Amino acid sequence: MPGHSPADGGLGAGPDPRSAPFPAPAGPVSVTGVTVTGSIGQRVTGTDDGSGGTGAVAAGPPVLYGREAELAAVSQLLWPAPEVPADGRVVCVAGGPGEGRSALLTRAARDFPGEAHVVGAPGRQVPWSGARALLAALAPSGAAGSRAARLARGPEGIATALASLVPGRGPVLLCLDDFPLWDAHSRAAFTAHWRSPGPRRGARAAWLVASAPGRPLPVAGAAPLVRLPRLTRAGARALLDGASGGGTCPAVAERLLDEAAGHPGVLAEAVRRLPPEMLDGTVPAPGRLVDDGVLARVYAGLLGALPADGRRLLRVVAAVCAPAAGAPYRTEVGTALARARAQRVPVEALDGLVAAGLLDRRGDALAFTDPFLARAAGAAPAAGRPSGDGGRPVRADGAAAPPASPAPPTAHERHRADRLGPPPVVRARSGVARGRALLTRGFAALAGGPVMDAHEAFTQAAKVLRDREPAEAADARFLAMEAAWAAGDVDACLAALDLAPAAGGTERAFAEGLRAALTVRPDQARTPLSRVVAVGAARDEPRLLLRAGSAALVLGDVAAAARLHGRALARARAEQRASLLPRILEHLAYAELRAGRYARAGHAAGEGLRAARATGQLNSAAHQHAVLALVASVTGDGPSVAEHAERALAIGRPHGLTQAVTLAEWALARAELGGGLAAQAAARLAPLVRPGPHGGHFALRMLAVPCFVEAAVASGRAAEARAATEEYALWAGCGLDRPAPAQLARCRALLAPRGEETGRWFGEALRRHEDGGNDFERARTLFAYGTWLRRRRRPGEARGPLRDALVTFERASAEGWARQARAELRATGAAGGRPAEPSSLAGLTPQQQRIARLVAGGATNQEVAARLSLSPRTVDHHLRGVYARLQIRSRVELSALMAEAEARA
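^ thats the sequence. predicted structure below, dont judge the formating
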């Protein structure tokens, strides 16, 4: 048939009654021929007669090699029985480049027992262009088509337009090719029509809607999908015989069938490119019959229609993918994105490539869904894109192509080269290449590998690039410091900062300030870091804002840190710099944690986790999980604490992420403390607050001390708590954390040997909290003070602090702490904010709740006493009170009641 070749996916010329599932056409068939270039798909050519419009159709149905099952499925779904009229049913067809999607639609239209139309996506994307094209094909005149197109825009949409054209005619099959590439107005109208109830469809029309795999088909959810798979060996052999006229040498035929792997378009194009003497075996065939030229031809439309950044990223992924045996081309997300960043290729297009079905992303693995596409993308020309190295062209893998070979050197030149080494410009170029290769390695490790590997690679890159590419060397220095910071290695941080140049500017100020802070010289850190904050606040560059926010965090100015990171986030979004988002959100979440705004910290960490997954930054995801675990420990969501902490530790421990590991362990300890397991919480926190290489992260160690002191005092480890408090006092005096003086006073109150001294320290803590800027920590002090007053049998005085603490906890969504505050309020005889149900556990005191949980879990009185540092007699006394309050008589009843309460929670 004119206009088609076997490359159309098995569509050949001439009749073939064996493959015709429909009876002979009972009416005229028109095919609207349109040439389309989609935003993601390949060039699609309709079955026109060469004129570009609607033309006459050849008498016999075209041949579809190996598609009998799919064609029969389409016919059965559209026309289940001769007496069943078209009733608005919709069938979807999906096929990739060269797989015969358009050919199948054409054949289905030719075989349909009635009027049929095939319409492709209009080349000019204007509102309602698709609807006009289809309705014009149905209309007997142009005026009718225009009127119908106007009706399609009205309240009744497509149903009204069809009703004005179809009545009085036989059943109609409407085939829409490349539907996702149609204009949005038409897609919305057709989708609304398909999803409407049956009586509204009205017209005797059936729909066959086609798309490439991965493109969304927004049709009715129940619409069946017919996927075009690769051809069977028999189907491919039939296509080969038809394309070559049956004269292919058996050895060449077997090679073609093996290399084409059932892809009809690839097979047909390979046959077309081979001369007859190679096909018949007269002349030896080349080593690879399905070469890059074949794949470039078949996939040219798909690759050419991709956005430029999408094509470049696909080339980079193809370059780093390694074909696994029996599996698609595969690599790690972090490796591919690191290579892309090193080559200055935007990574934001990854989501679009995955959504389009061109790449498959599962966890940390990234794979091509089609191995032929991987080869085609890797071999695609770079369209003259200049590189960063002298304007030389770029290879398919994104690296600079080598220059043309020079003339052979003379003997004198060879002797000089041996004596002096490579010329300076050659040495410079090789040094830059080596430095950038080290950067690539560092990015890959920082994104998803051991962070100290990243530190080493960035450190070496900074040394190599220092004199050649100062800007890249500066980035490498601070990336090395960031990697060492995540690992909790102070010496490595200082070593990276020592690489900073002696010149002035904010870079030197940042290095000097951090060096002073890391060596515990806060007075010398304030001036340079304050300068970094001021300069960064006056700029709109995300990188400078991020650096300024980090400086503010080191200074303890969490309000400024949150503000600066919020601005950096807005700028990065505006500039579509997706690779920066996880890092910015990581810092923003930490600033919100330091400020006690846990709900906002959780929101930032949740968004950061999604951004980290989208950009393949596994290590950043671990940090976000740790923050989410800490937030959940405040809200009292035990399962979420366990889940997020487990994920953070699963990544953080093998990758050396000491910062994320410390946060996750801290979250688990806070959850245990809130659940009454003070001894277990103290044991978990003790290593985190100790100095030395086996302790917690240096920037978090002191922040966790107040929590450790509370757990240690409650579990009888007062000596350890007192030692930690004295070290905390020295740190609080540095002025790098505003809430620290108030928390120090609370720690002293918990450790005070006499009641009068305890009250005085609690009063001091509450006065200090007025300037601390952390409402959550103030509420914790109020709660501890109120609890102490109640246990001193001063319930009237205890109610005020407990009510204030409850209100603050509720505002902060700290439900775990709010529950404890309500229980303490009820123990004073006041209403606890929410009425207790008769069978609930809310009326128990916090100590009774702890004992009840342990007993319900199967612990004996002696085991409970050991866990809570009480005597067995005290445990027995509390347990009898639990039984009396809950009106139960046995441990079995207590276990059942606890299980019921947890199920309701």
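The domain at 6-227 is CATH 3.40.50.300 (Rossmann fold).
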